[in-house]
């Protein structure tokens, strides 16, 4: 079966080449057969000396020669027809094989460009196709894609720099506003309404501060700016994150189950990985139901390690779950912000996991709640440890 990957251009080329080859072959064989037929009709009968005998014997002899000639012509026509059909069949097979080979050869540079383009993601826009060869249409296409990747890389870098710079620059006026607010409410004789208003403003300032902090972390993770590589144990990070949130867990009367196996070590930025695990645990506590549960598990798989955090709650739509890893997206909310979060928690988790060569997986549990799974590459285990 002739099937070229991901499309019908190769198949159309094959059919086109085979069709042209077959039409040419049929025309050539038809012309040969036609000329051979004309030659047979124009073959003269050799004149022989008049045999001894009367006119009847002469006519009988001529008729016999004509019958022999007709039989020879018919046999020759059958042989020529059979040979032509056999040649046409062979040409049909050869034309299809030749068409397929030619189509593959013509489309080979395009397949190379397609495969290279698919390997390029938003995290490695610095890569280029760099197709070599003559200055033809394929080279022009590859150069155009490289130019597009260059423009995308510059645009993404500018966007990340803007977010990081804007978040950093806004910290100074926020700190000034917080200091001014603290000075104003600390003065003697301040009215009670002013104190209440100060508390509300301070809460909003804290929310904006957390939002800016989240944007800075997100920009840093998306930009791939890892400060250093260290061996980080996911189990220890998860246990510490749970211990730091005992107050919130107790307030909702959550049942926490831990299966945190030691030795689940991954290389990376310790601060970012700690923030990633804290965001997952925060999400599990904040968006849980009263008297609910949290299950945490770490384990090794293939060449990586995985952290899984499951929570209970209402039944969720997987289509809604798929989008909550995007910045400022939340379940069941038209607006992304809330009193308790900035809408960046899981998007930061996804960005940090991707920056470390891992991935975030979100799954709506059939019985309700959410399953958050993070897969990361692992540090090779020494032989004496694995024994």
Describe the structure.
The chain has a five-stranded mixed beta sheet. The chain has a two-stranded antiparallel sheet with strand order 1-3. 18% of the residues are buried. It has helices at residues 9-41, 55-118, 137-186, 192-223, 234-243, 246-251, 270-286, 318-323, 345-355, 383-386, and strands at 230-233, 255-260, 265-268, 293-301, 304-311, 359-364, 370-377. The protein has ten helices and seven strands. A hairpin with a 5-residue loop joins strand 6 and strand 7. Mean pLDDT is 77; it is low at 1-6, 334-339 and 383-387. It has three domains: 9-118, no CATH class; 137-223, Helix Hairpins (Orthogonal Bundle); 230-386, 2-Layer Sandwich (Heat Shock Protein 90), CATH 3.30.565. With 387 residues, it is an alpha+beta fold.
Keywords:
387 residues, alpha+beta, Helix Hairpins, Heat Shock Protein 90, two-stranded antiparallel sheet, 60% helix, elongated, disordered N terminus, disordered C terminus
């Amino acid at each position: 079966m002739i099937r070229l990957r991901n499309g019908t251009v190769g198949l159309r080329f094959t059919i086109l080449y085979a069709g042209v080859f077959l039409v040419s072959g049929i025309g050539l064989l038809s012309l040969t057969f036609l000329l051979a037929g004309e030659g047979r009709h124009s073959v003269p009968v050799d004149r022989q000396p008049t045999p001894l005998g009367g006119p009847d014997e002469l006519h009988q002899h001529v008729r016999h020669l004509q019958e022999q000639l007709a039989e020879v012509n018919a046999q020759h026509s059958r042989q020529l027809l059979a040979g032509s059909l056999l040649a046409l069949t062979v040409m049909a097979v050869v034309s299809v094989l030749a068409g397929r080979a030619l189509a593959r050869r013509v489309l080979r540079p395009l397949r190379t460009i397609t495969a290279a383009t698919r390997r390029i993601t938003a995290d490695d826009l610095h890569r280029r196709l760099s197709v070599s060869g003559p200055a033809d249409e394929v080279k022009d296409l590859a150069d155009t894609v490289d130019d597009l990747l260059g423009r995308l890389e510059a645009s993404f870098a500018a966007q990340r720099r803007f977010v990081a710079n804007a978040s950093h620059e806004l910290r100074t006026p926020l700190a000034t506003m917080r200091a001014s607010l603290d000075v104003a409410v600390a003065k003697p004789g301040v009215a009670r309404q002013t104190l209440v208003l100060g508390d509300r403003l301070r809460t909003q300032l804290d929310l904006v501060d957390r939002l800016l902090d989240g944007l800075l972390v997100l920009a840093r993770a998306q930009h791939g700016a890892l400060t250093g590589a260290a061996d980080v144990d996911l189990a220890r990070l998860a246990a510490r994150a749970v211990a730091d949130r005992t107050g919130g867990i107790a307030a909702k009367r959550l049942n926490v189950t831990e299966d945190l196996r030691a030795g689940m070590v991954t290389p990376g930025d310790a601060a970012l990985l700690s923030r990633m695990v804290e965001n997952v645990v925060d999400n599990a506590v904040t968006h849980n139901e009263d008297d609910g549960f949290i299950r945490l598990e770490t384990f090794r798989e293939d060449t990586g390690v995985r952290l899984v955090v499951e929570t209970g709650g209402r039944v969720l739509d997987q289509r809604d779950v798929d989008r909550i890893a995007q910045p400022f997206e939340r379940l069941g909310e038209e607006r992304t912000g809330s009193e308790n979060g900035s809408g960046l928690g899981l998007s930061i988790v996804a960005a940090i996991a991707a920056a470390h060569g891992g991935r975030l997986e979100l799954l709506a549990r059939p019985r309700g709640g959410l399953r958050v799974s993070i897969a990361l590459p692992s540090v090779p285990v020494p032989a004496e440890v694995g024994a």
